[in-house]
Write a structure and sequence with these properties.
The complex is a heterotrimer of chains A (141), B (100) and C (119).
Chain A (H helix, E strand, L loop, with lengths): L14 E6 L8 H12 L5 E6 L25 H13 L7 E6 H6 L12 E3 L1 H9 L3 E4 L1
Parallel strand pairs in A: 1-2, 1-5, 2-3, 3-4
Chain B lengths: L1 E4 L8 H8 L6 E3 L14 H10 L2 E4 H6 L12 E3 L1 H11 L2 E4 L1
Parallel strand pairs in B: 1-2, 1-5, 2-3, 3-4
Chain C lengths: L1 E6 L8 H14 L3 E7 L20 H12 L2 E5 H7 L10 E4 L2 H9 L2 E5 L2
Parallel strand pairs in C: 1-2, 1-5, 2-3, 3-4
Helix pairs in contact in C: 1-2
Classes of the chains: A alpha/beta (141), B alpha/beta (100), C alpha/beta (119).
Chain lengths: 141, 100, 119
């Protein structure tokens, strides 16, 4: 690898949002956004990981990829849930992570909160729009 | 926040999701195939006109021209900008949310 | 203003790389600083020096490299995405460097605006 160029980010905490709108496996966006979220944990920033439209399927229980021979990465969302819990419990750490499913997207697809591999906040679009408007960096996959 | 939509409303639900999840008053920029949402006389013109009540809407001129569309082909009240204008909108309105 | 850019798609198949390129040029022309362009997902293919478009068409790989050189823009290709897609040092175009996904988070923090171009 060539010489690293690094920016000074010490002492800065920003609000990141990762927007997931696509179902898993049909495209790679679900997996690669997940990887970006996991790497970002080390930077101790605020993060909203949001599942909208077909993105809600990324965290659906019961994924079995044996027959399509693709890596089943649904368990990896558990690590995001753990990062969130650790951040919530650490009183010395100013890092707030939220895992959000848009209510309308979930219901339009006949799903409910029990269908997901992790605990999520189910939030209606009007409230989610306000949360989105507060974010500083939006990474769309 | 400024929202961008780069896919056609006839192909994807990006514009619909953007409209559902953008707060009133936030600007929307249409670019690439998303410029097709700006054209007059389509099956979604009413939806876009309604959106204009809540959002200033901009469209990227170079992408209109590329697709054989002129300013006269787009709905009243939608503002055409170039790449410089796109930059200015981002500077002015803060965080960009790209609806892909 | 300081910008970071994320390019999600490779050259030619989608317009994303073109749109990003023109945005970056316009930002620089207006006197802004583009700190880093991060190439992720198929965006890493913008760094493939073996790309050989038709002679009468734009050569995005070269255009990005020239932009980087002329205006000191840091073009970073994500190593994990690159490995998946066969972009390695041996076929890495001039002006690009391969690095970790943390460089995306980093420019998100350091820049004042992050703009995503994708499909």
């Amino acid at each position: 690898m060539s010489e690293e160029i690094e920016f000074d980010t010490a002492g800065i905490t920003k609000k990141f949002m990762y927007v997931n709108r696509k179902a898993p496996y049909g495209t790679i966006y679900a997996l690669e956004v997940l990887e970006a979220v996991l790497i970002s944990a080390a930077f101790e920033q605020h993060a909203c990981i949001v599942f909208i439209d077909d993105g809600v399927y990324q965290i659906k229980k019961g994924q079995d990829t044996d027959a399509i021979k693709m890596k089943n990465f649904s368990k990896t969302y558990g690590i995001i849930a753990m990062e969130k819990e650790d951040a919530d419990e650490d009183e010395d750490l100013d890092m707030v992570w939220r895992i959000i499913v848009e209510k309308e997207s979930m219901e339009a697809r006949g799903l409910n909160a029990d269908d997901f591999v992790i605990d999520v906040e189910v939030i209606p679009s009007t409230e989610l729009a306000t949360i989105m408007a507060e974010q500083e960096i939006v990474i769309s996959g | 926040m400024i929202h961008t939509v780069n896919k056609s409303p006839f192909e994807r639900n990006a514009l619909d999701s953007c409209l559902r999840l953008s707060v009133k008053g936030s600007p929307i920029l249409l670019l690439e195939d998303g410029v097709l949402a700006a054209t007059k006389g389509t099956s979604i013109s009413d939806k876009v006109a309604a959106a204009q009540d809540d959002h200033p809407i901009f469209v990227l001129g170079p992408d209109l021209q590329a697709r054989g569309l002129a300013e006269g082909d787009i709905a009243d009240g939608i503002t055409v900008v170039d790449y410089g204008g796109f930059v200015d909108l981002v500077v002015e309105h803060g965080t960009v949310q790209s609806w892909l | 203003m300081k910008f970071g850019i994320l390019v999600n798609e490779g050259p030619f198949t989608h317009q994303a790389s073109d749109s990003a390129y023109h945005f970056v040029k316009a930002a620089i022309d207006k006197g802004h600083q583009v700190m880093r362009v991060f190439f992720y997902y198929d965006g890493v293919n913008n760094a493939n020096k073996l790309s050989a478009p038709q002679a009468d068409d734009r050569n995005l790989v070269k255009l990005w490299g020239e932009l980087a050189k002329e205006h000191n823009v840091d073009l970073v290709v994500c190593i994990a995405a690159a490995l998946r897609r066969g972009i390695v040092e041996e076929n890495l175009a001039d002006g690009f460097r391969i690095s970790g996904l943390g460089q995306l988070t980093e420019v998100g923090i350091a820049a004042e605006r992050l703009v995503v171009f994708g499909d």
